[in-house]
TrEMBL record:
<keyword id="KW-1133">Transmembrane helix</keyword>
<keyword id="KW-0812">Transmembrane</keyword>
<feature type="transmembrane region" description="Helical">
    <location>
        <begin position="151"/>
        <end position="173"/>
    </location>
</feature>
<feature type="transmembrane region" description="Helical">
    <location>
        <begin position="53"/>
        <end position="74"/>
    </location>
</feature>
<feature type="domain" description="ABC transmembrane type-1">
    <location>
        <begin position="116"/>
        <end position="311"/>
    </location>
</feature>
<feature type="transmembrane region" description="Helical">
    <location>
        <begin position="120"/>
        <end position="142"/>
    </location>
</feature>
<feature type="region of interest" description="Disordered">
    <location>
        <begin position="1"/>
        <end position="41"/>
    </location>
</feature>
<dbReference type="InterPro" id="IPR000515">
    <property type="entry name" value="MetI-like"/>
</dbReference>
<dbReference type="Pfam" id="PF00528">
    <property type="entry name" value="BPD_transp_1"/>
</dbReference>
<feature type="compositionally biased region" description="Basic and acidic residues">
    <location>
        <begin position="9"/>
        <end position="35"/>
    </location>
</feature>
<dbReference type="GO" id="GO:0005886">
    <property type="term" value="C:plasma membrane"/>
</dbReference>
<protein>
    <submittedName>
        <fullName>ABC transporter permease</fullName>
    </submittedName>
</protein>
<dbReference type="GO" id="GO:0055085">
    <property type="term" value="P:transmembrane transport"/>
</dbReference>
<dbReference type="InterPro" id="IPR035906">
    <property type="entry name" value="MetI-like_sf"/>
</dbReference>
<keyword id="KW-0813">Transport</keyword>
<feature type="transmembrane region" description="Helical">
    <location>
        <begin position="185"/>
        <end position="204"/>
    </location>
</feature>
<keyword id="KW-0472">Membrane</keyword>
Amino acid sequence: MTDITVNDNTREREARKAERQRQRRIARDEKAERKRAQKTGFQNVANPRRSTLLTVLCSIFAIYCLFPFAYLLINATKTQADFTSTFGLGFGKTFALWDNIKTVFTYQDGIFGRWFLNTLFYVIVGAGGATLLAIMGGYALAKFRFPGRKAVFAVIIGAISVPGIALAVPQFLLFAKLGLTNTPWAMIIPSLISPFGLYLMWIFSEQAVPTELLEAARVDGASEARTFFTVALPLLSPGIVTCSLFTIVATWNNYFLPLIMLKDADWYPLTIGLNQWKDQASTAGGQAIQNLVITGSLITIIPLVVAFLLLQKYWQSGLAAGAVKE
């Protein structure tokens, strides 16, 4: 019995010794790998090394991105008097955030709420329609072969290279001829076209939807519509989320198009409405309401932040789609 216990203890000590040796070998290999990576300029992502320079650069970039949000958050807590008499990054004498929010939604008979609903309407119809068209068009261009496909690709690339602001005046002249200016259609119809979204879904459909899977569905008797909605669409969810975020942000922040298309304040989106409030002080007898403009701007960006946070996991899951050959 004693010999068995001694043998067990010996084997346990040898096992621990072997494990320590293995850990030391792994540490030596990782150290050698980091040295090789440092010399060659490459690095194993599964065994990263810390870089002080990259950390500092990323910190500066994070501060640069978060600075406007911090400015809005701080100044939204001030009254108009504190806004003009205190330091921009310092809090005022009175914490007036809740009063400012209440005033924003009641000022001028609650016009801010109307602007907010207008923007939601433009985003749901315009950005939603643009995403749907981009999904269907990108899938068709990726999985079907037809005459003129290369010409369509050239047109899409050309449309991406043309800035949207360059098309605003021609669009205004066209809509004026059709009698659609100063109507919601002047905002919705241009928003339905997203060349970048179409190109994005084209490339994503090419990589994310296996042709063999579509052929198997067709062999089983599924129609093209059923194949698209039940087979391809679930595989395209990361690309759909990405395309949706781009179109939502573009429509939500659209400024120049409604500036030239809309004259009636009842159809203004938030961007034009807040700009009108900002310029109010420069008009004859106008009242300065910078505290309301800042608070309204803070309220305006909250839906975008929430959308990014909620859709982040779907977005990240498709960033590397097609990057690994199987």
